[in-house]
Structure formats: structure tokens, C-alpha cells
Fold each of these.
Amino acid sequence: MASSEAVIRPYTPQDAAGIAELYNRHHDVPAWVDRELTPEMVLAEFAERGTVLFLVVEEAGEVLGTLGMFRACGMRVVPENEVIGSMFYLAPRIRGGMLAGKLFSLAFRTVRDQGVEAIRLTVNPSNQLALPLYRQLGCVVVGPAEADEDGDIEMVSWMPKIVTRLREEHGHLIPADLSMTAAWRYQADGIAGQELGKESELLQGRTVLRTALSLGELTFRAILDPDTGEILHTEVGAEPGPDPVLPPRPAGPAEPVFSHRSGRLNLTVRHSDGAVRVFHDDWVGPVLQETWPVFGPAYLTGWRQALRHRITVQPLPDGWLASERQPDGTLHRESRLVDGALYQRVWWTGGPAPYERLRTLVVNGLRSALLLDDRGYRPAGRGLYPANTADYQGARTRLRPGGAVAWWEPRTGLSARVHWSEPAEAGLVTDSLLALDHPSDYAYHVELHDADRPQQVLPLTGPAPDRGLALRPSGPLHEAEEDLTVEQAAWDDREVARRPVHRMVSGDHTVLLDAAAGGIASWQSAGKPVLGTPFPRARAFARNPRWRSGLWVTRQGTREDENHGLGWGSEADPVHWDFDPAAGGLGSPELSWSLAGHPTGITVTVRAQAAAQDGELVVWLTPTSPKAPELLVPGGPGEVWSLDKPGAWQRWTDRVAVRLPDGRWLATATQDPGSAQILVRSTPSGPLLALVARHPHGRAGSAHWPVSVLADADAAERYLTRQPHSRALSTEH
């Protein structure tokens, strides 16, 4: 059916059923969740997001497309003069025409007329359908150009603000026949053709973005700050004039942080947004985080980026009292850390409260923990269990009134249990994110203790298998250590596929190292492949647009970074690697890594020079395996869980085994559970492993990862149930 028959219009509540049906029918929608959406979920989502505008594409009474502009998206919230563009989708049968442009033209004009200055959005960097369109909208990358932990990059278009400025200063020069509803069509700056993340430049010590609109004989040029949208200079003319003298960028306000220590726990509050965090001396990142409570709906809050709040803090003997003055009264939260428990009390004083309920987001930081609830416990992870509703919180997993929810980390023994009761309502947005909706006068607490087994955290709990998660029968813990004795390896130079490579032979293992690709081009064990590689070419793998080898090494930002998290192994700028025959590996000015053989596989050793910021040394692997492989991970003491859930998901762990096509298993384990972890991802391209080790700033860093090929599932289970080297980490003095 021709797209010209389709109608674009604002949505009405009666469209909720059609929107739910559209999103249930197509799995490539931007906010897909692994459960059936209902009209009630759609309406709840629109209410909670602070919907500014939502458009539907209707054809013969059927909803076939959507585009929304919101104040919040669950993860982030933006100020009143900005919107988040989200839920852009066209059913396959109406793609390829002018509908996408018409959708954005109407949305652009509507939100601009409402005073919106910026449109923010996120996109998969490998999405070659949406990304070119967003570039034409004038969208530029905010922050890193590599995908964040959710697999997206953040972009912003300041085009509404630029067009408003153009109309204010030079409206009389705009030709009468130009409506400017699709202002991006008049861009003359070439942003759409520039390399992703390279749109801005450094001018007089400031990062700036140049943009230009060509309207007939009129060319309007602007220089602006791409982060804040501050317009620093405008001009009109056929040719650009000399660069202006720019004012220095004002220094950001200091961000006071109060802290209170109790034993090995440290409680902090951040003045800028009221976020509360609890840290443990031997854990990387916070073990628990809670956002400042906000009234709603709409619940304008986000666990990655929240609005700034004017918080005043009054110290207490075991915590503090934080208060936020609002037009009709004051919101208070008392936070106390006592005997390994965080006690929170919220109340309102003054006139009538703006709404009856508040929302607080509780974020578990024990990434590799088991999730405990009324049904029992199981390994959890984003998209693994429960359903990942980060992009569609209206579909979150609702807990029964007063229901139990806790996390227990097996290797360290650390745990966090949330105690809440009616009339509050709680729901799991992801495996580690709890949305707690409660009255304006309410108290709850979170126990933070160490435990030897999950039953000490949640009595009477037991294993609770789920779809794609099964507990395998296993015996007692194994004391035997794997033989990791370094074997003498022979290196020689070869040419494969007309590319120079360096070959290592150690026992049954043959490795080809490609310096040009920065990694392992091939690893064969007993003549059979261990790693999947694109050698000698490069292509996209999951959210990495340039996958070149089966094992490679990068230095990334910290895994707990709330704005980005751990990426996907891509690099902003290509690294030049040189082969070092003495070390048996690859080197660059800041980072080097080497290979050595051992009886069952290879050991990867990474070394890094001192850096200015904390980061992670990451070894990335793409095992040769089906796209929906079977993986084994440890659970409670002596337990091994099998994970074979289809679709995209991730799980943090300290040990993992991946089944290879020939029935053998590729296995690895951290040697330092205090600071090193493994991130396992199931992706449409296949499994992706990230072996992550902390690299503190200011000093050189190193990491050692043995990677083994094991004969069968029994050997893999023995590997995973070895006695851990680490002790339980106490929360007490």
C-alpha cells in the first residue's frame, strides 16, 4: 500500500492498543521488551515519561509508525527547554518514502514552537537506517563516539535553537516561500558527511561546533558550544568571516559531596542531584545507589542522568538530612547508615504536596550478584532475567506488595536486601534497577551485609530456574588447580591471505597474530577454531562497527561510569600496534599485551602506562560459537548454571565457559576478584566476552588472564566450581 495514503497525527489514548500491537508485532522496534505490551503499559509509559509530543502514522485505521518527544526516558531526564526523541519506528511496509522526513518535520515545528531548543536521542552506531537521518537533522555526538553499555551513542541537535535565533535576527531576509519546517534540509555545513564524533573542533581552547544554513542567497552561520548549546557567534554572508574572539568557557560549579563512614562502608550524597551512594572498601564502584525522590507522574528522574536539584545538607551523627525547597513546600530525606543498613525516611512540609506519590530509583551495584526474590534466586543480567524494560519502564516487572528483593554476590559474600512495604509499590526495571513508588511520608531501609550463602540473605530461598536459565547438577567444590605452567612457545613470521602475520605454536595451540588488525586473526586448538574472526576483513559485530580480530585489547572508561558504562570494544581513534618478538605480543605507546602458552590454552598479559583517569584494561574475545550459544557460569557454592536464552542479554561474572561447536568449552576466570570481572554478552552477532581489570590512575597497570580449551562439560564444571581464592568481604569494622 502506498505511503501517500498514510496520515500523521498526534496520538490519542485510544491509540494505545494500536501502538502496543505494533510494538508486539515487530522485534526491531527501538523500545522492544521481552514481554507482551498492553494498552495500559503504553499509557503508563507516556504518563511517566513526561510526553511533550507523540505522533502516530495511521493507515486504514492501523498504527504503522510512531515518533515521540519526551522529558525523560527512564535512564535520563532533560531540562524544560530540551526533549528526548525516542520511539521512532516505521513498519517495514511503509519505509523508503517521505514519511520519515514528514514525521520529523512536524515534530520539529511543533516542539520548536513550544520553546524547545534541543532534541536529544540515542542510536545504535551500526543502525544504517536511522543514523543517516539523524545526521541530516544536524545531530552530533555527545561524549564518546563509541557505543555505551546499552549499545547506543548519545546525539543532540541544536537546530531548533539555531532556527529560532535565525528568525529573531534575520527573519526579514528569509525568503517567503521557505517554511523552515524542515530546517535541516538547508544545512550547508556538511555535518551529515563528517566522521561520527569528529563534528566539533578546538577553537581558542574551546570545543565548538560550526553550522550553516543556506536559504536562497542567504547563508546563516553559527558557532556554538556542542555540549551546552550556547551560541557563541553568528554571521550572515556568502563566505565565512574571520574567527571571532571567543569568551572562555565558564568553569562549572564545584560539586560538593558529603560522606559518612561506618565500618568498611562509606555513604555519600551528591549536592548537584541528591544521589546517595554506598561504597565498600574492597568493591569497584558503589554497591548501592539511590536517586533523589521526585513527584509524579511524570517521574522526571533517571539513574544515569538526573536533573540538578538545589539540595541543602545538614550533617547528622550517622548520616545527614537533605532538603529541597520547592514552590509549595520542602521535600526532606534523612539518610542514616547504621550497623550495615541504610535507613531512608522521606517527608514533605509546607503546603499540599504536588502529587500523592514519589519515585526513588534503587540501583544495585553488585554487578555479578545473584538476584533473590519471592520465587528464589538465579543468575541475573540485563535482558537475561527479568525482562529488560529500561527503555519501557511502563512494562517493568511488578513485585507483590511487600515482596522480597535482594542481591548476593557469591565470590565476595556482599549482599543488599531492600525492605519496603505497602502502600509503596515496587517494580524491577532491569536486574539491578528497582523503581520504588511511595507516599510523600515514607520510610524504608536496605540491609548491606556479608553472607556465605543466599539463604542468609533471604531465608528459605532456593534455586529458581527460568527460561534460558537452568541449574546443572554438580558435585562438591573442587580443590584442584588448573596447570597454568608457561610452555615454551615458538614464534615465526608468515603471510596469510596476503597479510603478514606472526605465528605462535604451543603444544596443540596455534595462534596467528595480526598487528594491522591489533589482535588474534586465528586460534586453532588441535586443528579446530577457538575464536570467530573476520580476518582478513573488518565488519560490524554487535555494537562494534569495526570488528577486526577474535581477541584484542583496549583501555576503556570505568565499568561503573553511570553515563557510559563498559562499551563494546570499539576505539575512537585507531591504535598503531607493533609486534614485539621478545615479548611475544603487540605494543603501542600507552598499552601492550603479550601471549604465552600453557597446557590447555594461552595466557594474555596486559600492561599499561600510567594514565590521568581511572579506567579498565579489557581483553575482548569472540568465541567461535552459534549465535545463541550455551554458557556456563557459577551460582551459589558448588553450583553451575547453564545459560542458553535466545536474544540479547548480558551477565557479569568471575568465571565463564562457552561451548564451542565441536563440543569443547572455552573457559576463563579472574585471578583477582576484588578488581577484575568478566562481562558476558549474548548478541545477534554471537557471544562477546570482556575480561575487565581495573587500572587506577597515576600508576602503571597490568592484568593476567588464562584462557583454556576444556575437553567437555564435566571439565568445564570442575573449572567453574574450584574453591575461590578470595575471602568474604566484611561490611563490619
Note: Residues 201 and 314 are 43 Å apart (CA to CA).
Amino acid sequence: MIKRIHFCVLSLLFFFAGLEADIIPIDSLQGYANSSPYVGQVVTTVGVVTATPSDWIRSLKGFFIQDAEAPWHGIYVYTGNLTISLQRGDSVEVTGEVSEYYDKTEINLASVQDLKILKHGARIPKPLLVTALEAGSEAYEGVLIQVSNVTVTNDNLGYGEWEISDSTGSVRVDDAAGYSYTPTLNDHILSVIGVLDYSYGNYKIEPRRDEDIIFSPEGTGYAFFENNTVAADDTLNLRLHIQGIVEDTLQNIEIKIPYQFYFSANLNLEGDGFQGATYSISGSGTSSDPYTIIISNATVTRDLEGIVNLLNIGIPSAAGQYTFEVYTSKTDTVKPIPDSPVVNVLTVEGSGIAIIYPIIYPLQANVDAEITITNNFGTLQKIMIIFPQDISWEGDYTLLDPGFSNATATFTDTSLYITGALLSTGNSGRIVLRNINFQTTGVKTFRIFTGGSDTLREIQESPRVFVALQDTTVPLYVFHTDTLKEFLKGRTVKIKGVVTGITTTRAYLQDSTGGLILYQPPELHEGDYVKLEGQYNDFHGSDQLYSAEIINHFGQSSFDTLLLNTPPGEYEEGLLVRVNNLTPQGFTTLIPDTTLTFRDPHGYPFYIFIETGSELAYREIPPDSIDIIGNVSEFDGTHQINPRRLDDIILKGNGTGKISFYPPYLYKDQAENLYVIIKSTYTPVKSMELSFKEATFDTLVLLGSGWGNISAPDSLAIDSQNTYMKFVGGISLYEDTIVFINFHPS
């Protein structure tokens, strides 16, 4: 009993123990008014993350937090180009200056040190159910909300925004997260969930993912544990609450028990949503076949919750976050809810959260690294840091903050061992490693071990860093290497290379190792050799840099075009390539925003994509062998070549170009000047033969710059019936004309 009481007290103090600054609640920062009373002041607040920086691929550069499920209790934290790694459900302490950015209340985070992660896996606030009319109000700015039973009443308001309406009014929805749904007029949507943002004079809902736009009740719901932080090796009861979030009733619910828990199949169902419900248990309790609680005949809604009381369940001995996967449905097959509840298992050994700053380091340069360790359970007395293998360090360090005031440390060239620390729950200590030097590029891990008086154990998530090149730029091949690019996703990075292509919304950059797409780039030109900074993320599989800014412009540079013999893949993405001898499927029109299939002589398919606004849009391709130059992009696993302009389509003759006449018809036995207009859409006409019958003319005139110095055909033959002429060199015709003076058809 004493053990249980002690642990509950720790849980209650978890969020606030050791916080030095005065904590101002979020609703006080919002001020219950259009403008915050704290504008211009540096404040500290706490809340649970409802949307992270990595959720957004455009527009937003920050995260949202809430401290209650109520109006006025959400706020946006602007991070700019800081590299911030967060998860939904992180409990955080934020310090920054309050501003009204074009009437949106936000906290401006000046450095990563002003953000403390107090806990992973906290309960994410349930979205507030509001009407479309209410969603357009100041009270819900920054709050996670939900509007139900709506219709799409405008599918394109511009800039990725669209409109939904219910019986009370309308509200905008934005696409900063890049979800896959394409708004369609008159679509009926069960529910739209998202944080409420304000920009350009409009409130707008920002869904965070595909699952926030709900068309069916399957896989919906809200689940949480009453107390999700427990002690390792304990035996106790866990109460899991399950609620609906749409109007439909959830009748079928399944819960998978993590195999590390000891589950004796002892449980009961409580709550109005489980009146009359029955359950069964399947599985063998292994990692591949975990115990699964199958609940039928439930009546769970927004107003009727069900509670699963797991009795005498054994907690694992290993610290960590354990997810209880929850699946729901109305009548069909169950599907997983997007935010399944977690249980945090803590021990003194291995407890604590560690972050490192900075995240990205230059190669072979002496730099400082600061590791902050925040304790989240018990009191830490010992800490060991094991360095990455290829680091050079001479043992220069500093211990900061009261928790390390009496600590001592010993070091080797591969580790630092701290004893005598007193880091109690919620307190932090900083270790500054001076003049460390990384010898190779890539992702590196600083392994952190913590403990009390005896055993040490590695913390749940040891901090990692990325070692870039000496000028802090990331080689472009990294963004096409799975383990490396996953670490950099959502982070601010620097890159360097030559611009090889520019389209209406993108630019393409390549270096000697690979290529990358710049989405909505700054003003650039082909051949620019530049160093850029922006946020890396992917969109439907396409690796891109967002919000790029030019750091250095090194002038103009040449660049290579890669000749492909097989269809492009991940490692060609972003590169400028050329493919020879492709054949379209018949006479083809280059329709924008449509993927067209061409084949090479071996039958391999090559996918060609033309952006809206390109000068290639709606041009026609004859059904002959052609060469194509373009930059490689990806969409949902399909790699496609994006020609940049007309001369990226290289025709091979055999009818290249088009002929038109003015006037379009002539009368027999009547002489008139005839204009023969030659147009070549892609590559110029270099030679041409022309013949006609039963007509005469006095002379001919060549009009247009494509004729160069040529004033007459290279050969001309005329008899009583036929006229034949040939141009074999010195011409380059794109849109040029032959005028036959007094052309007389007989």
C-alpha cells in the first residue's frame, strides 16, 4: 500500500516538479479576447502537443499545445527554422515571447533550450465538438476541434484551402499537412478534425493526417488510461476508457494487450457504452499472437463511454512506452484508431529523457555539444554517456545546473561517467562536451545510461545527431537512404548544389551524390550554384525541401545529365536525366497533371509528367521514337520524368514539324500569294523536302530567322506537272515561312 501511495504522488507532481519559472496557463495567455494581454512579454507555459512541426509540409512552422479540453486553452508555438523533434502526446514546457502575428496569438521559441519535454505519451486532448460557425471564432484558435456532418461547399478557395458547411454556417479547411484527400464539391464528410489556425484574415481547420478527415465510423474513437504512468514489475488494475467521436455507435471493439504484460484474462466491462456488451479473448500472448480482447454488442458513442477494467495485470520489468492497440467499427471489419493509448513504464534505472543540441554537426571540426537530461521518475544519481565510435574528444566537459552541483565525473576517449548527481523528478542537468570532433558523416547515437545507487540501464530513447559535411551541408544522396532520411524528416537542413531545372512550383538541385526537389523555391535560375537552408520532408513519397532560403550564391556552374537505360528509381529522384528512343502510345497530347506512359525498345515503361503552366502543356507528340530530358520526381511510389521546356522533347525527324497554309484554300486558275508556315514544337527542322503538282509560281521568298543566310532551296526541280525542292543544311526552323509569289493552281 505504501508503494502505491508514493507512486500516485509522483504522478501528480510529474508535470510541475522542478519547474523554476512561473507557469502561466494557456487560457490566461489567450486572455479571453482577440489579443493576448502578454504581447511582448517572455512567458513560460506547459501543455500537451496536439500537432507537431513534422505534421506540416507547408505554411506552418511550429506546433500546437493545449492544457485543457476547453475553448481558449490552445496556442501555437512558432519554431521557425529551429530543429524540433516532438510527438503528439508529449507534455512540454515552453518559454518564449508572446506575439500577435497578423492577429494570431503565438509563442515564439527562440532556441531549442527553451523547450523541455516533461513526458512522452501523455493523454492527447479529445477534439472539441463545435459547429462550423463556432469554428470561425477566436475562442477556438489553437485548439484541437471537430466539426461533424458537413458538406464540401467549395472545393477550391485557393492556396490549398476549401470550405465545409453545416446547418450553422461555413469554415475553411487548409492543407498544410498534405493529406491525401482531394476536396470534391458536395462530398458529405462525417467529421473533420484539426487544430484551428488563423492566417490571412481567416480561421481555418488544419487536419494533421488522413485520419482527421472521416468518412466512416470504422477506426474512429478516443481511448485513454486513467493513469498511464506505472512502475515496472508492479501488479495493478488498469482502467481503459473508450469513447466515440462521431455520431455513429461503435458496436465492435478490439484491444491488443502488449505481449510484455502479464495478462491473466481477468477483466470486467463498465460504463453505459458497455451495457449489454459481451467479450471474448483470443491469442496466445506472444509477440506474433498477442492477447486480444474482442468486445461485441457495444453502444459506445460520444456520450456513452465504455470502460475496460484490466484486473491484476502484471507490468513489464523493462522501462518504455507500450501501446495498447484499439480497433473499432460500427458493423464492418474493425480498423485501428489513429491514437491508440500508451502506458509508460518507468524505473529509476533507465529513467529520464535526453536531448542534444545542436542536432546537425560539421565533419572533422571541433564543436561543442550540450546534452540535457530531464528526470521523470525517482532520483538519478549516476549517468553514463557512451560516445559514437568515430568521435575524437580530449575530455573537456562542464556540468551545469543544481542537480550536478556535487557530481563528479571520470572519462575515457569513449565515455563519460557521472556520479554523485541528484536529479529528482522533473529536474534537468546539462552536460557540455567541448571540442568533440566527428570523423565520418551519418547518424550517430550518444547512448545514455541512468540509475540510482546501483544498476545503470539505457534510457528509452538515446539522443542521435547527424554529421554533415564540413560546411554543414547534407549530401543529397542522404535524402534517398531510408535510415538517414527518416532521421532528418521534419528538420531544418542545409544543402548545396546546382539548379538543373525549374518548373511552375519546383526547382531541382543536384550535387555529385544525388538530387533533391525544392518546393516553391526562392528565385533561382538553371545553372545557379547555391547553398540553401530549409525544412526537409516528403510528400506522397517525393523527397522535398520546403521554405528554402538562399544562404550563399556561388555563381553559375555546369551540370551533368544522367543517361538512363532503365526506368528511374529512388536514387535518381531529383536528378536531371535523359532517356533515348522512347515511343508514346500512339499520337499523344501532353495533358498537364497526368502521367503518360512511354516505352523504350525493350518495352520498359517510362512515366512522363507535365506540370500545369508548363510550355509543354497540351503539345502534341507524333507516334515516333523520341528522346526526353527531364528531372525525376516521385508520387506514391511512381518515379516520373518531368521535362522542363520544349527542347527537352527531342524528335528524330520522320515528320517532325507541322505545315499550315494561308490562305487555307485557293481558287483554280487564279493566282495569289501562298504562305506555307512551318512550325516545329520541340526541336528545329534541320532539313526539308517539299513537292506539289499542277501549280506554278513566279518566285519564292523565305521569311523568318530560322532560314539563316539561306535565300533559296539547295535544289529545285520543275517540270510541266511537278515541283520539287530540297533544303539540306543551314536552316533551323521553329516557326518560319515560305511565300510563293503568284501561286497559280491549274
Note: The longest strand covers residues 144-158.
